[in-house]
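Why predict the complex rather than its parts? Because the way molecules touch one another can change local conformation, and only a joint prediction can capture that. The input here totals 441 residues.
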Amino acid sequence: MEVVVVSSPLAVEECFTKNDITFANRPKLLAGKILNYDYTAVGFSPYGEHWRNLRRLISLELVSANRLTMFTNIRQEEVWLLLKQLFQNSRGEFVPVNLKSKLADVSFNIMTRMIAGKRYFGKDAADEEARQFRDIMSEIVEVHGNSNLGDYLPVFQWLDIQGVAKRMVKLRKKMDEFFQLLIDEHRKTNRNESNISLDEPSGSNKERKKTLIDVLISLQETEPALHSDDTIKGLVLALVVAGTETSATTMEWAMALLLNHPEAMSKAVAEIDAHVGQDRLLDEQDLPKLTYLQNIINETLRLFPPVPLLVPHESSDDCTLCGFDIPRGTMLLVNLWTIHRDPELWVDAAKFVPERFETGEGEGYKLIPFGAGRRVCPGVNLGRRVMALALGALIQTFEWERVGKEEIDLTEGIGLSMPKAKPLQALCRPRPATTKLLSKV
Ligand code: HEM
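Output of the joint prediction:
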């Protein structure tokens, strides 16, 4: 397979405007072939029209305005739980916090509660089911994080010298059984509870919740072909793979950058104090007013995009790109990392300057951390909400400091979504002005 790497905004624009239909496919990479093998509707699937069904389901059933509202309290509760834990640990003093794992817990628990009404991460998620899910997730991250040579050099496909294919086959079986049990459990509970309202907001962890799986099972009755168990499993897989690590790593990078730039942190705190105050916790309705906070997130996504080459695309037909002939079946990689740091496109490209977005510096195809065109990330609104809510709440209520005097090391590591090489540790203590507020959470 030929591979084309694009690293200029003009070429990106041509890919996702003139050639958007041609590049709407995904190549048959090993991860997609094996992990999604049985799931004919899976989003990452290159096959036929199936990805359209997955995107339709995500748009309508998870990230539509209605559904985002329905799941608001899950996002809010998970953020509050994090604040509560930090508050209890700190007892008013600066204490070290492993931010990487805390932010990952929030991100994963929000997603698994929306999907299945379950919390699988954190100290209180200690049962066997939670352990199994965490094992599956860490294995997915590991096998996806390491490139598979066979995807790029066909001779290695036969040899499987990295043993990736064997591991994936095993992992698929484990995952399939886990997700099937989850669906069966929901189906059984739904039968026993004849009158659950699907639009009723979800409650706390102890209550019966209306989850994405409930919604899909009910749709299965009316349109079985579009909502088979395989479709549901494929959707769950796509969401936990695509929608958790991405947000968690971005929040971790954002906190690392803020710790290295205390002036930006102070500005963000001042903005929150001005628009929200110190007598209540910020909520999602405050987010549109917090433009500096949004700029911090954009600047983080510019410097550390969690999907730095986008998910690979494939041409379904011959086409031309910037005057070059591109044959059908070519893999397209978009090098966002290079575009986002190109000194020809950005002033002080390597520096963390959230203010640059106040003057419209990121317009056009220069900043595309969520991709573009018809395969653009469908979770952009959800991801942005979760990140802004969690970061805003952490900044509003705690003072943050580096563990040592030296700057936080910003070296990138290897993983599913460009993680920090060294997990972020920081010191935090409640802000005097918000201690009373925290004690009520
Ligand atoms: C910081 C947060 C996130 C970032 C930076 C991000 C980024 C991306 C990127 C770059 C792509 C590939 C686009 C392309 O190939 O053109 C993508 C695809 C995808 N994202 Fe996200 N994403 C984030 C959060 C989420 C969330 C919260 C969800 C959950 C709904 C999600 C679900 C997906 C899915 C299902 C796809 C595959 C779409 C397809 O193949 O048609 N993402 N994301």
